[in-house]
Design a protein that fits this description.
- By secondary structure, the protein is an alpha/beta fold.
- Helix content is 30%, strand content 22%.
- It has 11 helices and 17 strands.
- The strands form 4 sheets. An 8-stranded mixed beta sheet has the order 1-2-17-3-4-5-6-7, with helices on both faces.
- Helix 3 packs antiparallel against helix 4 and helix 4 runs parallel beside helix 5.
């Protein structure tokens, strides 16, 4: 069933009476969002090319001293295009071609910033523990073929691109990193953000390939707002979101690769909670499909050896600082989710709820400093 259920929203629409559905959706997703009117050419192209296209609008209140700061973001989720046993170059080229098709539709819809899924140029092979051929997918963040591909389409469409790849750091002993490259709408490499937290759970024990990143909590000032990239497992760490927010992020992208049995019940909650807690927009992207590998592998958790991780469940969505969120994309097929955001909503929500003003960061910092000391003693009062 995990790879057959198209979406939670589809089930709700099918079984909840129409007169009650709006209230149920309000309770589940916050305020009702307007659907974004999408160009007919984009809708037709998405249909012809076999991917889902959805669009929603996050409004903000009109202000007297600030004009609206309206931008559009696009989230892309996709399956790999060829079997994992295909030649590396052919797999990369096929995925590039697929993404180019979807980005073209994003451009038709006037998207300003687009983000791809984690390690989008390859199968999510890190948990097989095999070195070859998977390390051959690694590229330079500055001048690899994928970055050059992204630079071309960024300039062509005047679009910021967030491109999460397996990075080969040629200047530091060809070390591998899980990295998101941020390409400016001018085509320049604005910078990169490496994955801060590495999972060690079941199949997802990725430290065989790369370790925790060393770029901290970088925020990128783009022509369309301040953005950050919290890669995959980092979404489970509230302080990781917080630090991007404290550095000024208005939109935090969370490109991921995660499967149903492991995390699907957590997925709708974490990015939305982060948007609320940090007065910013969050964008959660997950790949789709089941990826088969020729050689069996084990998880070290007592389960039998297997050839796949399970079903990548897609369900990409955008959440706003006021707690509202879009419905998710499909659990089973490629898709492009477009959201029109008024970034003024970040400050407006901040002024209403005051989480940052009332946060006791100096107290937390002092107590965290004590908590990481070797001689730490918990502050517990006993009789």
């Amino acid at each position: 069933m995990s790879g057959e259920l198209r979406s939670v929203e589809q089930v709700l629409e099918k079984y909840i009476p129409e007169e009650e559905r709006r209230e149920v959706w309000r309770l589940l997703y916050g305020r009702e969002l307007r659907s974004l009117e999408l160009p007919g050419c984009a809708v037709e192209s998405a249909s012809q090319k076999g991917f889902e296209l959805k669009g929603y609008v996050f409004d903000a209140a009109a202000e007297q001293l600030r004009r609206p700061r309206v931008i559009r973001v696009g989230l892309i989720q996709n399956k790999i295009q060829l079997p994992t046993s295909s030649p590396v170059a052919e797999q990369v080229n096929a995925i590039h071609k697929r993404i180019a098709e979807i980005v073209e539709v994003a451009a038709m819809c006037d998207v300003n910033i687009v983000c791809f899924q984690e390690a989008w140029t390859m199968p999510f092979a890190f948990c097989t523990r095999e070195r070859l051929p998977w390390t051959e997918f690694a590229e330079s963040a500055e001048n690899g073929i994928t970055t050059k591909f992204c630079q071309e389409i960024a300039k062509k469409y005047n679009m910021v691109i967030v491109s999460p790849i397996l990075e080969r750091d040629e200047l530091h002993g060809e070390t591998l990193w899980n990295t998101a490259v941020v390409i400016s709408n001018t085509g320049a490499v604005l910078g990169k953000s490496r994955k801060n937290h590495i999972p060690r759970i079941g199949d997802f024990n990725e430290s065989t390939y790369y370790m925790e990143g060393n770029t901290g909590h970088t925020v990128f000032q783009t022509a369309f707002g301040r953005i950050a990239v919290n890669i995959c497992y980092g979404r489970h760490h509230p302080l990781n979101w917080l630090m991007y927010s404290l550095n000024g992020a208005e939109i935090i992208f969370n490109p991921s690769a995660t499967v149903g049995e492991l995390s699907e019940s957590l997925w709708p909650i974490e990015a939305r909670n982060a948007a609320i807690a940090n007065h910013c927009f969050t964008c959660a992207i997950n790949r789709v499909g089941t990826e088969h590998f020729d050689n069996e592998f084990t998880s070290g958790d007592g389960k039998k050896a297997h050839h796949d991780f399970g079903h990548f469940y897609g369900s990409s969505y955008v959440a706003a600082p006021d707690g509202s969120r879009t419905p998710g994309l499909s659990r089973v097929c490629d898709g492009l989710l477009i959201s029109e955001l008024d970034l003024n909503l970040c400050r407006q929500t901040n002024d209403k709820w005051n989480f940052k003003m009332t946060g006791r960061y100096e107290m937390y910092a002092a107590e965290l400093d004590r908590a990481v000391a070797p001689d730490f003693q918990p502050n517990i009062v006993r009789e």
